[in-house]
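Hey L., structure's done. Input below.
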Amino acid sequence: MQGNLMSRRSFVGAAAATAATVTAFSLTGCGSNGSSDAKEDKVEPNDLSGTITAVGSTALQPLCEAAAEQFMEENSGVQITVQGGGSGQGITQITQGAVQIGNSDVFAEAKVKDTADLKKIADNKVCIVGMGPIVNKDVTVDDLTIDQLKSIFTGEVTNWKEVGGADAAITVINRASGSGTRATFEAAVLGDTKVPDTFKPQEQDSSGTAAKMVASTPGAISYLAFSYYDDTVKALKVGGVEPKEANVEDNSWTIWAYEHMYTAADPDEATKAFIEYMMSDDVQGELVEAQGYIPVSGMKVEKDASGKVTKK
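Output:
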């Protein structure tokens, strides 16, 4: 995956992945797949049965949907339903035991303070997602610094002419407060800077809806996972750095996150098999990059729950 990721996936398909949309696949087929280090007593694929509900991150939703479809083609006895709702919703529901998988762009530690709840769940980092600012295609600005982004997303700068663009009002479109995409973007851009209570930009519940709003609103700016980039919006450079895989891998592009698929500490057989499938070559070697994400294996750095980045 080289160069700008604007051509990675269909915008129409991405925009459909809203938090209100429930995607349930019911494809059937046969075959087998699994992790190479699977235990000998692992249930064979065609023997698997069960129902899995995955809820949470809309940034991860397109990959989770695509992998679920492939998995069910090989495991006719398993039904997987993928929903959005945001990372906060995913973590809340998995800690409550309401779903089998909670998808999140952020570590559970960022949302859950009760260590007893954290012990109930297991973290599975299935890929990396780069995120960055996108604007309406009529915006003439192509590159913003972190400080300029901070000024825009705190309401200090309200006109594009203040950052080298045309004399046009800036419309800020945020994700909702429970969004992991928002948490990742704000951690990288705002840091400890508090957004004034008087600044109240509109909020959207899903990445797909935010993308649609930017595409249709003159002067609009928001932020998306690379997997949602397309030519209906314009992706910005940040500090001269392009939003592409190689720059995420060495942390030249600093707005990125792990995509977590949290399960119960002791998941059921079908859920365990699906997570193993997410880490298999079928997904990591093909589907992850095809969907606009970054394999964990390609990263030259790693990030802990506090946000600290270190070289591998």
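The radius of gyration is 19 Å. The first strand starts at residue 22 and ends at 24.

-- N.
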